Amino acid sequence: MSKINTMKIRLLFIVTLLAGIVSACGEKDIAVFEGRNQIYFEKFYMNALYPGTKEADTTRTSFFFFPENTKEIKVKLVVNLSGLELEKDLHFGLKTVEEGTTAKPEEYRLEKEYTFRKRALPTDMKEVKDTIEVSVLHSDRLAELGTDGVRLVVELVPNADVDLGQYERRRAVIVWSEVEAKPDWWTHEVEWTLLGAYSYEKYKLFLQVVDTEGEFNENLIKNYPARAIAMVTEFKQWLLDHLNDPEHGAEYNKILDSLKV
After folding, report:
1. Separation between Cα atoms, residue 203 and residue 259, nearest integer Å
2. Residues with Cβ < 8 Å from 54, sequence gap 6 or more?
3. In this predicted model, what pLDDT tens digit does every residue of 4-29 receive, in sequence order?
């Protein structure tokens, strides 16, 4: 047998072997990360690479939705873990990615390490989730930046116990601001029948004293108008009860006069 024929046979054998491996992986539920754990965020920080279809998603928050003088907000990030069931708590790090980050070091705080907690899981489960928190801090310049706010990009840090998972989910993007844009549901109809003209102060106060769960939205207005009216009525009564407030009474009276209920 010639050397050329021998090489052809060997090449054919290798190709056949690889095809068999690929076929087996496609047909069986193989633990992709068997023997080695990997972590990655729940959200994609960039669009999924082909043939994926997931789009980038940013975690947003605003001091607008918190009581006045709030100095710190805990932003929750969901982390996924693939691999074998943990025998103990898994620790990993988080670092700032300078590219894309506009937040200053004094405007956020990262912990020295984060923990993925050990827990009992079904034997067939290949992916579990846990939540970590990143502290974002209030700064005077937030008021000047409007709804754009500041941006922080963080990346998971692996170690001897854990690797990084899917590339498009190794980072997370957090954006926070002090103000909030006028909500889409505050339409011309809402202005003339319920809450009156939009203002930052009115909306923030409404969230603080009545809509503390953030339920007032387009669906509520359209499908549960009686509930929407009741909430605005409750807001009106609260304003009436606080008109004598020595510091904010004049402001409350102005808001009261603008309501349409």
Report:
1. 12
2. 44, 47, 48, 168
3. 555 544 544 444 444 444 433 343 34
